[in-house]
Amino acid sequence: MIKYFRNLSLVLKNYSDGLGHLIFTNVCLHCNKELVSTEKYLCFGCWEQLKPTYFEKEKGGNQLERLFQGRVHIKHASALYYYGKGTVSQSLIRALKYDFKAPLGIFLGEHMAVLLKDHAITTCDYLLPVPIHPRKKFARGYNQSELLAIGLSKRWQKPILQHLVKKKTYTKSQTQLDRFGRWENVQDIFKGLGTNLSNAHVLIVDDVITTGATLEALVKAIRDVNPQIQISLLSFAFTN
Ligand SMILES: [Zn+2]
């Protein structure tokens, strides 16, 4: 019996030590190394590993702008970091989407705002986060693109549009589909709502751009009801 209690107290001690570790230590979202007080979300080494696209420095059209050529008219498009399997940007987006890390979204939005503070994209009048279905927003607790937009809005003082467009259907996850499947899966998912923005310049904010199929559908839905509107795109990450 005594042995049992001793084992039990050992189990409880280990459990509480483990819990204490979970609650009180901050670890890097990519390599799990314990962070020092001056590091936030990532250790310095992992921040260094993020691969910038430098799209914002390119004159005369970058790779992302070319992706939309012949599909929909876009005024400016930029994305900050390349995205891929095992990359640091993938760890950040995964934490943002699946680990209930709302403050991380605002932090990344502000980070983007600082890096792009002199870019033509800041001539936008409004920010529009890519809408997600209310059911998904409820399950996740937030729309991750909206958090990025909140961070941008804090730095740039631009209003966020909430009701320009709505998501109609609950799309299947894009991850298992090929390029055409992805395009087909999202073509009819947005509905532009009646607004009178005439020729305002709206910046759509997204977390990751892959084929651009979702954004293409979103831009078309907005233009259906606002034909004169000017649209730019900004994403944290881009799969090349
Ligand atoms: Zn790290």
Report on the structure:
The protein is of the alpha/beta class and 240 residues long. It folds into 2 domains: 1-46, no CATH class; 50-238, Rossmann fold (3-Layer(aba) Sandwich), CATH 3.40.50. The chain has helices spanning 2-24, 44-49, 63-67, 88-98, 102-115, 134-140, 144-156, 179-186, 213-225, and strands at 77-82, 126-129, 165-167, 190-192, 201-209, 230-238. Mean pLDDT is 87; it is low at 10-14. Zinc ion binds next to helix 2.
Sum this structure up briefly.
The chain has 240 residues and is α/β, with parallel strands linked by helices. It is built from nine helices and six strands, in the order αααβααβααβαββαβ. It has two domains: 1-46, no CATH class; 50-238, 3-Layer(aba) Sandwich (Rossmann fold).
